[in-house]
Amino acid sequence: MFNVAIIGASGYAGAQLVSLVTTHPHMTLQHVMVSENSQDAGKSMADVHGNLAHLGHLKLEPLATHRLAELANSMDVIFLATPHEASHDWMAELSSGAAKVFDLSGAFRLKDTAVFEQFYGFAHTATECLNKAVYGLAEYNSEAIRQTNIVAVPGCYPTASLLALKPLFDAGMLDPSVRPVINAVSGVSGAGRKASLTTSFYEVSLQAYGVLGHRHTPEIESHLGTPVIFTPHLGNFKRGILATITVKLNAGNGQDELDNLYRTVYGEQPIVRLRDSFPKIDDVAYTPFCDLHWKVDEQSGYAVITSAIDNVMKGAASQAMQCANLTLGFAATEGLVNG
Ligand SMILES: NC(=O)C1=CN([C@@H]2O[C@H](COP(=O)(O)OP(=O)(O)OC[C@H]3O[C@@H](n4cnc5c(N)ncnc54)[C@H](OP(=O)(O)O)[C@@H]3O)[C@@H](O)[C@H]2O)C=CC1
Ligand SMILES: CC(=O)N[C@@H](CCC(=O)OP(=O)(O)O)C(=O)O
After folding, report:
1. Sheet harboring 207-208: ordered strands across?
2. Pair 190, 62 in one domain
3. Over the stretch 295-311, which tens digit does the pLDDT of each residue have?
4. CA-to-CA distance for 293 and 310, rounded, in angstroms?
5. 87 in a domain, yes or no?
6. Is the pLDDT at 151 greater than 80, yes or no?
7. What predicted TM-score, i.e. pTM, was given to this entire model?
8. CATH code at position 249
9. CA–centroid distance, residue 238 to ligand 2 (Å)
10. Which residue of 87, 88, 216 sits with most ligand 2 atoms within 8 Å of its CB, as the best mutation to test the pocket?
11. ipTM of model
């Protein structure tokens, strides 16, 4: 059995990981942790998340920095479901031992530190870790993920967007003169558990935010290889992301070509489900799947692709678990998909 610690275990992504690790056939959850001065320190997982009421024995430990080295040497796997700053500050020490570290924050997803500082608002100084970090888009980078001890788990919107767009870009099917346009709606869990007016029940409606300036734009662009227009929206539901993506295809590409392409790329990938109709968020909520469907207008050469994921699962925790499975030598789907 592999020993696991989850830091940030009281948050939405961390609690989802608690669920996944405690049901994983080859993992033992040794530590669930929060920040040193957390109000939740000492409480159990059952106290903070009702759906984990059966896990009253798992107590949230406050994590003081002097314990980082001990974790690095005693754990096989460390999941960081923490704010970007905490992940950035702690990665060097956490990754200095035998443990493989999977960071769900955005701290290690952008290799360009100037772009990072512009979008995250603080300077990146963990250069060695950044150089080592592999972008954990599990369907694409499985070989590199297997070899590393630092995985930067992709953001939720980038996961939905890249799984839809990468096959087209990599196959040279996109007209380079027209940027892909990504309009995506996320449930409020994407904003994390801390109370705020923007995410309070009475305030949330359906609204664009971060227009032409969201930090996921450079993440999508750098891992896709071409500029995009990305507009996120906050929706009045709990879980899931639906990304509707419009692209202009190069001449000679129509419905048949896209059908063949997606089948070739994802036919053997159990987490990506190619659907016969446009997916709904409810089809993927609380699951590890990404559902894709597309339609081409043969006359204009435009195509619309929709990509649906659960932001807390494929957009965070279950993708982190896919990556952990790969580094430990299991199938990416271990503990996530049966049958
Ligand atoms: N929610 C989502 O859909 C997604 C989230 N992510 C990323 O995953 C990470 C966690 O997100 P999410 O679960 O939504 O966030 P939450 O706000 O729900 O949870 C954050 C967790 O981190 C803990 N924490 C906060 N500050 C520190 C610190 N300095 N040291 C240690 N622990 C700390 C919090 O507990 P406490 O403050 O009590 O210590 C809590 O357990 C973030 O980086 C987020 O950007 C990525 C993809 C999707
Ligand atoms: C609805 C909502 O607020 N979503 C979050 C994205 C969540 C996510 O993927 O986060 P990281 O890139 O921080 O890991 C946002 O737009 O900031």
Report:
1. 207-208, 229-234, 181-186, 241-248, 302-309, 290-297, 272-274
2. no
3. 999 999 999 999 999 99
4. 16
5. yes
6. yes
7. 0.98
8. 3.30.360.10
9. 13
10. 216
11. 0.97
